[in-house]
Design a protein that fits this description.
With 158 residues, the chain is of the alpha+beta class. It has one domain: Aminopeptidase. Helices cover 30% and strands 23% of the residues. A 4-stranded antiparallel beta sheet has the order 1-2-3-4, sandwiched between helices. Strand 3 and strand 4 form a beta hairpin. The longest helix is centred in the first third of the chain and has 15 residues. It is globular.
Amino acid sequence: MKVSLTLHEKPCDWADLIADLDRYVSQLTAEWTDRIPGEGLGAALLGRVVESTAGLLLTAHSSEGDDPPGTRLGYCVVVPLKDPLTGMETPFIAALEVDRNYRHRGLARSMVDAVTAEMMRRGHPELAARAGHNDDALISMGERWGFVRAHDVMFLQP
C-alpha cells in the first residue's frame, strides 16, 4: 500500500470533508450522550484549524494500488485546545479516521507521527487526544504510541 500524506495549509480544498466530519461528530457524540449534535459541526471544526498554529488538517491518499490515485483513505483534524486557566493552547486531535478497508496497516500511526513532527516544528511539544474511560482498545493504542493519561475530567450528572 502506497500512501501520500498531505498537510493542508488553506481551507479551499476541505469542502469534501465537511459531510464526513459531520457524520464522524454525530457518531462519536452518540457514543457518550443522548444529545443530538448541532448542525454544521464539520465546517466549524475545520474552521478552528486555521485559528492557531495548534491547528492543522492532514489527509492520507492512495498513490497506487486498488484504489485510484488520490482516493482519500483517512484524515486527522487537529484543533487548538485552550486551557481555561492559563490560556495556553495545546494541539488536540479532534478527529482521526482511516477508511475501514485500510485499518490495521499503520496508516493512523503514520498520520499521528506526521502531525507530531509538524506540531514540534511549530513549537508545540505536546499533542492531546481523547479516549472514553472504558475504551480500552483506544487507550491501549494511545499508550503504545506514547500518549499518557493526564487531567481526568469528571462530570456530575444529576
